[in-house]
Design goal:
about 400 residues; 17 helices; globular
Amino acid sequence: MKGVAWPLIVTMAIQALVSLVVYTPPVLAPVAQTEIGLPASAVGIVTALIYFAATFTAVSAGNLINYFGAMRASQLSLVLAAAGIAIIATANPWLVALGALIVGTGYGVVTPSSSAILADRTPENMRAFIFSLKQTGVPIGGALAGAAIPLLIVGFGWKEAALFASAACFLLAVAVQPYRAGVDLAPHAPRPAAPVHLLEPLKLVMSHPRLRELALASFSYSGMQMCMGSFLVVFLTEHVGLTVSSAGAALSMAMIAGAVGRIAWGIFADNWMAPRTVLGALGASMAVSAFVMAAVTPSWPYALLLVVSAVFGASAIGWNGVYLAEVVRNAPQGTAGSATGASLAMTYAGVVFLPTIFWLIVHVSGSYPAAFVAVGLFTLWRGSYFFRRSKQ
C-alpha cells in the first residue's frame, strides 16, 4: 500500500478537479439560463457534448499516454478542463457548446492516464479497492460542485463561479509538475511508441469477450449516472420547488454517498462477492432509485429526499471502480491505458445517449418523472443481463 499511496493521492486529486468542471454546468444552469438564453433543461445538451468529445479522446488516450507519458496526459486534461469551463462562462450559446467540447476533450484522457499510472503500482489483491478509491475523485468533484459552486454563485455570480473552477484546475496542473519526473521520465517508464491506429484499441476490447461485456455494460450505467448528475438539480428546482442551494446539497449528498459506495463496493468485489455480481446488483439498485425519484413531489420531507439522493448516488456513482478494476484485470499485459480508453469510449457513448434521451423526453412530454422511469427501465434491463451472464 505504501508504494501506491502517493500515486493514488495525485490521481484522485486530478480526477476530482476535472470532475468538478464536468458537474459545474448542471449547477450553473438554473441561474445562467436567462443570460445564456436557453432553458435549464438544455444542460443535457452540454453534458452530451462533453461526453461526445470524451468518446473520441478516450479511444486515442493510449497514443497520448505512450507519447507524452501518463502524468503529462493528466496535466493536459486539467488544462483543457480549465479552458473549457472558462469559455462556458462567456454565456454565448455557441461558445458554451465549444467550451463543452473542450472540457470533454480533456475528460476523455483523465481516467485512462490515471489507470496507467496505477496499473503497475497496485497489488493484484487490492486492485478493485485501489481503483474504487481512485475513482472517488469523481463524486468528490461532484460534491464540490454541489456544495461550493452555489456558494460562489451567491457570493460572486455564476460566471465567477465557473472561473473559480477553471483556476483550480490550472493551479493543480502546475502543482503536480514536480511529480511528473517520477512517472514519465523514470528509467523504467515506458518509452514513446509508434502511434496505434485509432481503431486498434476498440478492436482489442471488442474482440476480448470479458472486455466487450464490461464495455457494453458501462454504456447504460454511465448514462444513468450522468442523468442523475445533470438533471437532479434542475429537477429539484423546477419540479419540486427547491432553491438552488438546497438542490445542490442533495446533489452533494448523492456524490458523497457515491464516494463511500465506490470504496465499499471495491472491498466487496475484492473479498466477498464476485465483481460481476456486484455490478449486477448496483444496476438494479440505481434503476429502483430512479423510479423512486420519479415519485418525488413538493410535499416530500426534505430529509427523505436527501436519503433517496444518497441511495441513488451510492449505486449510480459507486459502480465505476469495480468496473475499471475488471477492465485492467482482463486487459493483456501492457495495454491497461489503451483498453481502459477504448472501454471508456463505450462508457462515454452511453453518457451522450441517455442524457439526450432524457432531455428529449422532458422536452416532448414536459415530464421529468417519465424521463427517470425510462432510463431506469433501460438500466434495469442491463442489470438483469449481468445476473444472466453470471449464471452461465
